[in-house]
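Fold it.
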Amino acid sequence: MSPVRPTIRELLAAGGKSFSFEFFPPRTDQGVTNLWRSIRELEALHPTFVSVTYGAGGGTRDKTVEIVERIATDTTLIPVAHFTAVNHSLAELRHLIGRFASVGVNNILALRGDPPGDPMGEWIKHPEGVEYADELVRMIRSHGEFCVGVAAFPYKHPRSPSIESDTQRFVEKCRAGADYAITQMFFDADDYFRLRDRVAALGCDIPIIPGIMPVTQLSTIERSEQLSGAPFPAALAERFRAVGDDPEAVRRLGIEHCAELSRRLLEQDAPGIHFITMNKSTATREVYGLLDLVGGS
């Protein structure tokens, strides 16, 4: 049994800024090789934690669990396991919690998740499962000394009828026992600040960690809108299109913008930065280097 790592709650409360990286379960053998190369390269930066996503519709559940277990047992990193309710009964969810606990994983990110096949399709609750993420948070907290994070949406969740209802739903997750939140990716710092102000106005003060991904090619812009449900900032999109014929210039602008965005967030009291890596370390390490954070987190 692996030693239990510190919780994200404890690490955030200790002061200083959190710097973390997000990976996803690959589908090919080469993808696995690339993932572990990136993990080892980013491990050298001593991040506060790393997280592993669950895949659309919970489709990579077993791979997620395997990767999290290996990070917990074979590296010095603190893993956070993404955990969704999609297509899972309460019995299955309890079994997964037990697997994580058995290898010393005590940090879980509780997400309702997207329907399999079509992330924007109709949400259908498992007949023996849970309906909302706040129920998932309560269930995890009832099964041991877990630190539970939740998702936050700077724009709003694509299925939320309004920004106000989305903010209320977020606060309900916090009051169910969430310790912190990580945002969906965004590219305008003001979106994050507006979210933080809305949440604070409802009396909720848990740390909200910004989720950031550098634009390294023009296709990232369209992909980000599909993943986040938020429109890409028009003025920023024009800056990228102006250099669109030069892939290296696009990549350079993306890294510079990501560093600028991160600096502004940190200067205005964001608790840290969560880098969405897409299982690649190079761009993330370049942004990290521009922030002069190497050896600091």
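Strands lie at 18-23, 49-52, 79-84, 107-111, 147-152, 180-183, 208-209, 211-212, 272-276.
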